[in-house]
Amino acid sequence: MSDTPPFPGADQNFDLPPEPDLELSVALTHAPGGPEHVFVLVSRSGQLVESTLPDPAAAIAAVGRFGERIFFPEPGPPRLCTQQYGGPQVAVVTGTFNGRTVNSRFSMTDGCEIARWRALSPLLGGVAGSTGAV
Questions:
Q1: Reduced to 3 states, what is the DSSP secondary structure of residue 102?
Q2: Residue of 129, 94, 125, 122 lying closest to 107 (CA atoms)
C-alpha cells in the first residue's frame, strides 16, 4: 500500500465551516395585507434547540451553507438580475447567525431575489423549483 495521497492536497487538513449557531425569527406574509406567520429556529453548534419550522434540520443545513453570503453579502458591482416575478411573498429574518446580527428582507421580485429565497427555502418556505442552490 502506498503512502501517496489519492489526489493532490488530500493529505492537507482543511478547516470545514463550523456548524452554525442560530437564533432566527422569520416573519412571512404571503400577500400584502395578509396575515403574518412567524417561525423560529434556534441551534447551537448545528444541533437543534428549538424550532417551529416543518423541517428544521434542512433549515439549519441551508443557513449553514448559504447564510454567511446571503445575510452578509460582500460589496461588489451591481448585479444583473432577470426581470421575472415570483410572487408577492415577503419574509423578514431577524436574530443572530454565529454571533452576528441578522436583519434581512427576502422577496421574489426578480431573478436575484428568487435565487436568494430558493437557497434558504427550508427556512423561508419552499417555492416551485427550489434546489437549495444560489
A1: strand
A2: 125
Q: How many CB atoms lie within 10 A of CB 120?
A: 25
Edge-to-edge strand ranges of the sheet holding 100-108: 47-51, 36-44, 22-29, 87-97, 100-108
The predicted model scores a pTM of 0.79
Report pLDDT digits (tens) over 9-48.
444 444 545 577 999 999 999 999 999 999 999 999 889 9
pLDDT at 79: 87
SS3 18: coil
Domains along the chain with CATH numbers:
22-72+81-124 (3.30.350.10)
Total number of residues shown for the chain: 134
Provide the grid cell at 31: 400577500
H-type helices in 3-80, by residue range? Answer: 56-71
Place of cell 421580485: 109
- Nearest Cα residue to 117 out of 61, 62, 43, 57: 62
Q: Extract the C-alpha cell encoding 44.
A: 447551537
